[in-house]
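Entry 14. Ran structure prediction on the chain below.
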Amino acid sequence: MSMTVRRLTRAATAGLVAAAALTAAAHSAEAADTLGSAAAGQGRYFGTAVAANHLGEADYAATLDREFGSVTPENEMKWDATEPSRGTFTFGSADRIVDHAQSQGMDVRGHTLVWHSQLPSWVSSLGASDLRTAMNDHINGLMGHYKGEIHSWDVVNEAFQDGGSGARRSSPFQDKLGNGFIEEAFRTARAADPAAKLCYNDYNTDGVNAKSNAVYDMVEDFKSRGVPIDCVGFQSHFNSNSPVPSDYRQNLQRFADLGVDVQITELDIEGSGSAQAADYTKVVEACLAVSRCTGMTVWGVTDKYSWRSGGTPLLFDGNYQEKPAYDAVLSALGGSGDPGDPGDPGDPGDGTLSCTATYTRTADWSSGYNGQVTITAGDEPISSWTATVTLPAQQSVSSLWNGTPTRSGNVMTVRPSWNGTLAAGASTSFGFTVAKNGSDAAPAVGTCTAS
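Output, structure tokens:
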């Protein structure tokens, strides 16, 4: 099934709730007290890991939809879930998460393409030649299914050992294909979806240590040889025995200085009260201090479903009540409804920065089309942008990606989700799927506002 047809089919499945979902997304983006909107005001995304089987729980879905601007499938895109038998892909649970995210104007991180864990048994039984083919086929099959819909992929996950050696971890890929498997996976991923950000993701790399040095050396080597790597993910699982390192920000910055984005991908911090809140504040402030730290993802919505629930590590307790850590994160992000918020048009300083918005139709079929709006910064760097899209009266939007929409009638106002910060002259884009409902007219794109 082609990407366009698949996207149309999934949009039709969600058609009964699309209008209500867009209304909920609008409310979330306009709220002054949500994590996603506050982070967007800082040019970052703030996301969470999501489990498909919890989406039917009203409090879970309501908290997710209100607070977060990005989602990562917790297990639904891993190898055992998507290719349990060789060559037979199953996307139902992952599709459910992607559909839900798109209906709410959220972005999606892909997790993960190549990992030593959660492998079906058939993968480990292959010889080297077959394993190489299977790895590349899996990358192409999974990325091809979601081409154009995932903003960042964890291409390779946890390939280095813990401890002081900095050595590679034993795995079917390492043991049979050698050190080159990581480079090959990234090259295959780039060809599969050239627009997606390609990340290496690992844990216990948050400070400068032997493991993070080994990852650093690999990234430095890849960048020097043109291996396509765009970002490094830091899982950032903390507790009293593994606290936030004193050199956390400096470590993020040294990776950014290699020319890659950094993302905090699986954040959770065991604890409670003011101590937990203070640790979350350290993490958020470190990300905000590094211009190439593009976003943060907490590893779950609520303590009751956390993989380390006994440590109560998340921002919402088991009853979905906001914890002191939630308030600390929101405060560190600066909120999004203050008069001086950089994401709101009309703030002091508007007019000193500029951007342009240009529209193109990227796909077309009898009952709908995909549109794309490209945002380009002017002569100065910008930290946020706002663009309006006015649809013909008959048309309706069923999904939107790489932006956070609000809607009033047939006018959408779109702000960044993860892609607000642009260098002078640099561009980003957001896209959307439209049901024509009898009208083939093009939407009108208003003036871009920068801050």
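The first strand starts at residue 45 and ends at 50. Will compare against last week's run tomorrow.
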